[in-house]
Amino acid sequence: MIRIYEMNKYLKENLIENRYNHTVGVVNTAIELAEIHGENKFKAEIAALSHDIAKNMKVTDLKKLIDEEGISLTIDEEKNMELWHAIVAPILGKKVFKIEDDEILSAMRWHTTGKENMSRLDKIIYLADLIEPSRKFNGIDELRKVAKEDLDLAMVKALTHTIKYLLDRNLAIDGNTFKARNYLLYNNVKL
Ligand code: DGI
Ligand code: FE
Ligand code: FE
């Protein structure tokens, strides 16, 4: 893995200012959640720092990388270009940042949609992305509180928020978002 200093340099050069500032917010929030929930803080920091590495790339470049890797997309992934930066994140994570840790690469990959049976690190990055200090939406203060108390309950609330957000805008919803939420409801969550 390259040094954190070098990662920051790459991100400052490749992300627009607001996106870089968002990334710093996600790093701080993810470290705080990792501390509270007994997750590896270093993995949380690297995953958070890298999660939007591909966010400001041109869609044609994102698609090119996806095709070069021979990744087959689901219909939802093919149709919703907003999801591509998360698909490319672990590719660049490996290529540019030389990240080899599968838990970090998974958290980068699933930070936008979530998926069935997420790891603790996956959940921390998904939540930190949504509740970092610069985010604003109705109910965010409650979600910030729950994220510190119960990761699974916070994930259900977060996924519900995302689904409502997409419904309100008449956007298609990726199947993994539903699977992530259903899995929690069928298994561990105490509502
Ligand atoms: O990259 P960020 O903005 O920090 O956050 P993100 O990775 O969660 O991406 C949010 C964007 O992705 C937002 O424009 C909504 C969109 N998005 C997330 N899930 C879905 C989705 N868009 C569609 N069409 N379907 C989804 O399931
Ligand atoms: Fe993102
Ligand atoms: Fe993000």
Automatic annotation (TrEMBL):
PANTHER family: BIS(5'-NUCLEOSYL)-TETRAPHOSPHATASE, SYMMETRICAL, SLR1885 PROTEIN. It comes from the Bacteria. GO terms for molecular function: bis(5'-nucleosyl)-tetraphosphatase (symmetrical) activity. It is an enzyme of class 3 (hydrolase). Keywords: Hydrolase, Iron, Metal-binding, Nucleotide-binding. Its EC number is 3.6.1.41. This is bis(5'-nucleosyl)-tetraphosphatase (symmetrical). It catalyses: P(1),P(4)-bis(5'-adenosyl) tetraphosphate + H2O = 2 ADP + 2 H(+). InterPro entries: Diverse_Catalytic_Enzymes (IPR051094), HD/PDEase_dom (IPR003607), HD_domain (IPR006674), YqeK (IPR005249). Residues 19-134 form the HD domain. PROSITE patterns: HD. It holds the Pfam family HD. It comes from Clostridium hominis. NCBIfam families: bis(5'-nucleosyl)-tetraphosphatase (symmetrical) YqeK. Coiled coil: none annotated.
